[in-house]
Design goal:
The structure holds 2 protein chains of 2 kinds. Chain A is an all-alpha fold. In chain A, α4 (59-71) crosses α5 (76-119) and α7 (154-170) packs antiparallel against α8 (175-193). Helices cover 78% and strands 0% of the residues of chain A. Chain A is built from 8 helices and no strands. Chain A has 2 domains: 2-151, no CATH class; 154-195. The two termini of chain A are 20 Å apart. In chain A, 51% of the residues are buried. By secondary structure, chain B is an all-alpha fold. Chain B folds into 3 domains: 1-100, no CATH class; 101-131; 132-171. Chain B contains 7 helices and no strands. Chain B has helices spanning 3-15, 25-35, 41-53, 61-97, 104-130, 135-150, 155-167. The longest helix of chain B is centred in the middle third of the chain and has 37 residues, at 61-97. The radius of gyration of chain B is 19 Å and the shape is flat. The N and C termini of chain B lie far apart (39 Å). The chains are: A mainly alpha, B mainly alpha.
Amino acid sequence: MAEVGVGEQVAVPSSSLRRAAVSPWRLMRTFALVGLCAFGGVMPWVYRAVVEQEKWLDEREFAEMWSVCMILPGATSTNVAATLGYRLGGLRGASAAVVGLLTPPFIIVLIMAVLYKRYGDVPAVHGAVRGITAVAAGLVFATAVKLAKGQPRKSVVAIFAVAACVGISILKWPLMGVVGALVPVSLAVEWRTAK
Amino acid sequence: MTLLEIAWHFFTVSLVAFGAATSVTPDIHRVLVETRHVMTEEQFAGLFSMSQAAPGTNVMFVTVLGWQVAGLAGALTTTISFLGPTALIALFVERFGTRYRNAKWHISIRRSLAPVTVGLLMSTGYLLQRSAMSPAGVALAIIATAVLTWSKLTPLWLTAVGAILGAAGLV
């Protein structure tokens, strides 16, 4: 993993060129499985599949792709599926990844909506939703920790992460304001320390 | 509300959904519940939190809201209009942005975004956490955080445990 990160900084062929193409079916299957299993935010599951299991990207590449897709409008996970699908398998790969990611949850969520309309008032159902939400929160926190651990300068990450979290969760500033204020500062720090 | 109107609203809203898709929920709520009255407050809130407990991307709330307004056609309309154009934008950025991947400014921009992303994730976790505010719910979230950070355990098992504890009224 380390050599990919280093290779990216040096002006050698970009990492996407060194990667073998992945078939659209493989992309669709991988993302469909993610869509099927992922509870409480799909990105932690995409991370597991793409970085830990398939090893299509290393942690830093993933964090960067994720950040770009997060800043771009729309749903982060769908943007990542389109971006990664395109990088590994062209236009067909992008379509396959997006369709794979969205089809299983689309069907499941509609079945759940029908059931929820009928049984949503049952206390056990209500409680189960709460329990799943609590675990989902834990999964999101764990992903934040893992991503931070993959970054080169932990103290810088901690400062900006806490600042962003305070701005949005406690001060309730608009998302774009917080991101718009922090990214230029983060960029300046990064620019000064980059070789 | 016609399908075209629905499509237009979800498309325009998707263009300002920076950071997280759920960040535009208030605006969708404003149109569907307050302006157009196509669903009640209770229907909106119930469907939204139900969709957050479903597998897959948490953006599927647009799917169930579309379904509530206009059935299967509505679900397809909101899903495609919200996710399609923005996925195309991401694709263009990947297509035309990668030739500069090794440029110093490009690397710096990408690197500088990552720490902020960690913060946004913490905010999302905090938001989820608030809706499960009981002490047992907080404890469960903390345990889940620790287990998922330091082990390779599949989160699906913990999700099942959470659902069972919740159904039993313990969370």
